[in-house]
């Protein structure tokens, strides 16, 4: 053994512990260990930095993550999971450290893309890598990596379901199509949000043109009203689909985020009363369906064959408070409903901590 260690220029300890890869179960065990560590770290909302008493915990999680990456350099699934955690919990590092940690993940993700033979791991890494470069505002690289993902010719789910039907494999067809529909609800929501952002930018450009007397004021105002109506239509489309399919179980489709975004859209158009109504709906959703409760998707009539696996233990209430702390909400900050929503979230966060 010493001769072998000398030949490869490694320590005996490393040789004894050497393992080319980890099983998916082993990766998930490490992932959950690190995820629970990140989840415990609390943020000071006034500074958006980790609270002083949790800084040592943050350092411990970072060291543990690096230790696993060094110990299993060829476990690309593990590296991918750790990078996804870093991105998901990026706000836990605080504003001062955020960019450094994101850059750190880009190096790991680029290593995955170069070396893994697993297409699913590679393409997931490309998505996370693109998101990382968006966070760093390097949009050329974000686009480059996204365009490296193989474009599927088409979704085979429906074709496969038809084959199952011909073979009378009815339950398999039902499970496949329900899962496809469940995913499509989120895809529709993301598409609507993307279109909403396009229209917001178009509206801003038209608003600038109004200040220039060389343009036809009436024509621009008509176009602005048209864009405004389309934008609000897309916001309601996403929300109504979720409301119908969830059968008033709003927490399943993260509808609390939809109402928060809707309130911001109304503020964008100076529709303060409508923004307040959206916050009332948000408060109602939070009261009826506490986010921290374990939700079983199969409770919904349309998705009784869908299995939900929640791998995260993070405190979503902290995320909501960070969003509501943004300057975008300044116009509503002194309104009673805004204060009620904050109080409700703080109460539920306390309930979650007492439950742990």
UniProtKB/TrEMBL annotation:
Which UniProt keywords are given for this protein, alphabetically ordered?
Coiled coil, DNA-binding
What are the protein's GO molecular function terms?
Answer: DNA binding
| Coiled-coil ranges per UniProt | 196-223
Protein name, entry field: DNA-binding helix-turn-helix protein
């Amino acid at each position: 053994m010493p001769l072998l260690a000398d030949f490869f220029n490694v320590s005996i300890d490393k040789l004894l512990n050497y393992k080319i890869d980890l099983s998916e179960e082993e990766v998930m065990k490490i992932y959950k260990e690190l995820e629970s560590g990140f989840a415990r770290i609390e943020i000071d909302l006034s500074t958006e930095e980790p609270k002083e008493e949790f800084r040592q915990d943050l350092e411990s999680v970072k060291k543990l993550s690096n230790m696993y990456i060094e110990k299993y350099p060829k476990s690309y699934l593990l590296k991918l999971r750790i990078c996804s955690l870093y991105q998901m919990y990026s706000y836990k590092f605080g504003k001062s450290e955020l960019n450094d940690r994101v850059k750190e993940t880009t190096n790991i993700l680029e290593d995955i893309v170069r070396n893994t033979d697993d297409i699913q791991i590679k393409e997931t890494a490309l998505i996370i890598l693109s998101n990382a470069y968006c966070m760093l505002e390097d949009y050329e690289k974000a686009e480059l990596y996204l365009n490296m993902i193989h474009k599927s010719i088409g979704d085979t789910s429906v074709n496969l379901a038809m084959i199952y039907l011909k073979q009378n494999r009815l339950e398999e067809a039902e499970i496949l199509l329900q899962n496809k529909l469940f995913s499509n609800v989120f895809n529709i929501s993301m598409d609507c949000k993307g279109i909403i952002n396009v229209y917001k930018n178009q509206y801003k450009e038209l608003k600038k043109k109004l200040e220039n007397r060389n343009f036809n004021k009436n024509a621009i105002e008509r176009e602005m009203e048209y864009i405004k109506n389309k934008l609000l239509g897309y916001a309601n489309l996403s929300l109504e689909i979720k409301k119908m399919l969830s059968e008033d179980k709003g927490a399943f489709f993260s509808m609390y985020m939809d109402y928060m975004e809707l309130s911001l859209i109304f503020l964008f158009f100076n529709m303060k009363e409508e923004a307040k109504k959206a916050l009332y709906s948000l408060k109602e959703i939070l009261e009826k369906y506490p986010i921290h409760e374990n939700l079983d998707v199969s409770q919904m009539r349309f998705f009784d064959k869908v299995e939900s696996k929640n791998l995260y233990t993070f405190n979503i209430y902290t995320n909501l408070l960070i969003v509501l702390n943004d300057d975008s909400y300044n116009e509503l900050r002194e309104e009673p409903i805004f204060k009620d929503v904050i109080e409700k979230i703080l109460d539920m966060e306390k309930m979650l901590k007492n439950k742990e």
